[in-house]
Amino acid sequence: MWPYASKSRPPTKLVPINELSLARAVRIASLLMLSLALFWPLVALQQAQAADPQAPTEHPEVHLDRLEFPKDLVGAAGFEKHLRKVLKREAYRADWGAGSNNRIEYRLAVEELRFTVEGHTLRVHCLAVGRLPGGQSAKSELTYGGDLAQRVKLTQQVLEIVGRGVITRLAELERRRRGLR
Prior knowledge:
Blueprint: H1 22-51, E1 61-68, H2 76-93, E2 103-118, E3 121-131, E4 137-147, H3 151-177
Parallel strand pairs: 1-2
Antiparallel strand pairs: 2-3, 3-4
Helix pairs in contact: 2-3
């Protein structure tokens, strides 16, 4: 048994609100402000959705139907795997203008991926075309240079930029098709 357990504490005195200490009043005010700051965006989001009932609340299922990638490159399988990850991430982030009960399919073809060495600089050129089933297409082309020793990292950066560009444009085309923008 604790040595202080036998001693009883004096009863706590109830303090009227007008006699609250300044520190307690500041603590209560800051908790109120924090709760307001945390929950205000949720209220604003609900109001925005109520104002626009056609705005989708969740992401549609976006499916990469086919990916054509040049097979004659050294490390092509790794680059293709990286591009698939990038496309999946960017397709999730993009605003397609559709809800969760919709399915959007697209195809992507990397038509050109070439490397040029100029001194100690490596230039990576990539050309990719994405297509939606309705016949709309988006094209992205990029030439990017960097250190020759960083070939894999540089190629992955180029694929990320090109993939993001194609997905963003395809999402814009899909929104227009649905009459949203």
